[in-house]
């Protein structure tokens, strides 16, 4: 309706000089008209020039005086020749009109007060205020600046700014708008009507849709950073694609005795089907059994009856050290021996009560170096190098115990945010009872360390509940909006 009004008007006339006036003349709300103007202008059907207009409008008070007369004139007319009290006037006109009217009638010297009575001082008065207000209401001009100023001061009028447009035909003007096609379709080509169609122009300034790409989960993000750190330090990644392990590789080969509490079903998930492993390297199994039962290689062993059924039990691996053990065993079979640096980052499982910081599964990061004559100093050095690259350069070490390492150390790092030392990993030198039965040369040592992937990730991303990081409750928007994380990579 607004569109039709504009286009038809411009068919006959060159210009709509003022859209406000035009809107009023055709009885359309100017905001509606404005929307149509913007759309027509976008399609170059019309051209428009912005005009800013200022004009005075009456306030509510001004409107009432324009209708009923100014309060001073109402007051004057209510005063009879014999005089009247103010209270009687108030009964006739109301408090407001009397208060304002008396004030102005006195200023104008129209009335006087004698002995509590109000008398007229002049015969007739003119209501100039009412006349001026009516003029403004009708859109006429009030010439004298002091009149305008007086009305403004009495808050009977205010200045209003209007936005309006001057309109003309645009290059694509037509008395009726053709709907522009947005796509060239197969049907257009078949019918041949594409020749007569008008196509919508590309709007190169329009905002694009957010790109739908894949997003890395924070754990994967940090995993990649840590992978890079290991690769830069010359480590090779171990294959970690078997979540199911035998107890043999998870515990026995690590010189972890069969009655160790970690091997209880309260701590470890054992498999029902298949409950037992089918193959183990038999000659190595014999050596492992012997070292548990009676020792050797300078060790006394544990002195108990080692049971094959216990070693055969399948489980969900409780640490990635099971993988390291397999790899070391394979390395020991290669002659001549060649030093190696290995790492892994993958999932492990423990039968734990789930809370804010624990799940029954998590990721372990593990690094190891296998070489001739390594010492505890080498371990301290490599830990310092590794953790510094992770952004944790203030380190402390505390003696610890693992069945498979001696000596063992827990690693603590000073957390600047928390202002305290937090445990960040576990480490040690693998025992001869573990390495020598594999067939590694006598003078070869292995230094190793492990930590969880979740811990540094939670610290880096400021997540304090592990369930917000891993599992079904993770908010996808968190993953989408997270910055690509940077560790202390040099
Ligand atoms: N396997 C240990 C753990 O699960 C970590 C570790 C790895 C400790 C290597 C020493 C050496 O906590």
TrEMBL record:
The gene is LOC105059366. GO terms for molecular function: ATP binding; metal ion binding; phenylalanine-tRNA ligase activity; tRNA binding. It catalyses: tRNA(Phe) + L-phenylalanine + ATP = L-phenylalanyl-tRNA(Phe) + AMP + diphosphate + H(+). Belongs to the class-II aminoacyl-tRNA synthetase family. Phe-tRNA synthetase alpha subunit type 2 subfamily. Keywords: Aminoacyl-tRNA synthetase, ATP-binding, Cytoplasm, Ligase, Magnesium, Metal-binding, Nucleotide-binding, Protein biosynthesis. One of its GO terms (biological process) is phenylalanyl-tRNA aminoacylation. Residues 221-472 form the Aminoacyl-transfer RNA synthetases class-II family profile domain. Gene3D superfamilies: 1.10.10.2320, 1.10.10.2330, 3.30.1370.240, Bira Bifunctional Protein, Domain 2. GO terms for cellular component: cytosol; phenylalanine-tRNA ligase complex. Its cofactor is Mg(2+). Its main location: cytoplasm. It is found in: Cytoplasm. InterPro entries: aa-tRNA-synth_II, aa-tRNA-synth_II/BPL/LPL, Phe-tRNA-synth_IIc_asu, Phenylalanyl-tRNA_Synthase, PheRS_DBD3. It holds the Pfam family PheRS_DBD3. Its EC number is 6.1.1.20. PANTHER family: PHENYLALANINE--TRNA LIGASE ALPHA SUBUNIT, PHENYLALANYL-TRNA SYNTHETASE. Tetramer of two alpha and two beta subunits. This is phenylalanine--tRNA ligase.
């Amino acid at each position: 309706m607004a569109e039709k009004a504009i286009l038809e008007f411009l068919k006959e006339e060159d210009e709509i000089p003022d859209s406000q006036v035009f809107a009023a003349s055709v009885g359309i709300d100017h905001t509606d008209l404005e929307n149509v103007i913007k759309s027509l202008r976008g399609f170059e059907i019309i051209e428009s020039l912005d005009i800013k207009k200022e004009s005075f409008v009456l306030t509510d008070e001004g409107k009432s005086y324009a209708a009923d007369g100014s309060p001073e004139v109402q007051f004057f007319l209510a005063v009879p020749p014999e005089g009247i009290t103010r209270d009687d006037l108030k009964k006739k006109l109301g408090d407001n009109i009397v208060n304002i009217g008396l004030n102005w009638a006195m200023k104008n010297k129209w009335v006087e007060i004698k002995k509590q009575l109000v008398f007229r001082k002049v015969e007739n008065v003119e209501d100039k205020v009412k006349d001026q207000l009516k003029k403004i209401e009708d859109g006429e001009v009030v010439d004298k600046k002091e009149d305008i100023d007086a009305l403004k001061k009495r808050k009977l009028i205010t200045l209003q700014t209007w936005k309006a447009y001057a309109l003309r035909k645009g290059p694509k003007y037509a008395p009726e708008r053709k709907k522009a096609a947005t796509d060239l379709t197969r049907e257009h080509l078949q019918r041949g009507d594409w020749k007569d169609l008008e196509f919508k122009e590309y709007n190169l300034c329009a905002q694009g849709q957010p790109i739908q790409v894949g997003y890395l989960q924070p754990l994967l993000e940090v995993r990649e950073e840590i992978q890079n750190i290991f690769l830069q330090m010359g480590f090779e990644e171990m294959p970690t694609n078997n979540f199911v392990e035998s107890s043999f590789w998870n515990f026995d080969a690590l010189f972890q005795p069969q009655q160790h509490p970690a091997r209880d079903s309260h701590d470890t998930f054992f498999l029902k089907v298949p409950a037992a492993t089918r193959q183990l390297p038999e000659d190595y199994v014999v050596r492992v059994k012997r070292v548990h039962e009676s020792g050797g290689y300078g060790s006394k062993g544990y002195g108990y009856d080692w049971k094959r059924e216990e070693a055969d039990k399948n489980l969900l691996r409780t640490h990635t050290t099971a993988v390291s053990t397999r790899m070391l065993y394979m390395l020991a079979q290669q002659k001549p021996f060649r030093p190696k640096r290995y790492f892994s980052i993958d999932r492990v499982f423990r039968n734990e009560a789930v809370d804010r910081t624990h799940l029954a599964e998590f990721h372990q990061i593990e690094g190891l170096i296998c070489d001739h004559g390594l010492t505890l100093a080498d371990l301290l050095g490599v830990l310092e190098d590794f953790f510094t690259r992770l952004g944790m350069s203030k380190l402390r070490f505390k003696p610890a115990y693992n069945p498979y390492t001696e000596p063992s150390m827990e690693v603590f790092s000073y957390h600047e945010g928390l202002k305290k030392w937090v445990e960040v990993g576990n480490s040690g030198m693998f025992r001869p009872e573990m390495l020598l039965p594999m067939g590694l040369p006598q003078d070869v040592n292995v230094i190793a360390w492990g930590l969880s992937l979740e811990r540094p990730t939670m610290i880096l991303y400021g997540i304090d509940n592990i369930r917000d990081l891993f599992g079904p409750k993770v908010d996808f928007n968190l993953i989408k909006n997270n910055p690509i994380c940077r560790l202390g990579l040099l």
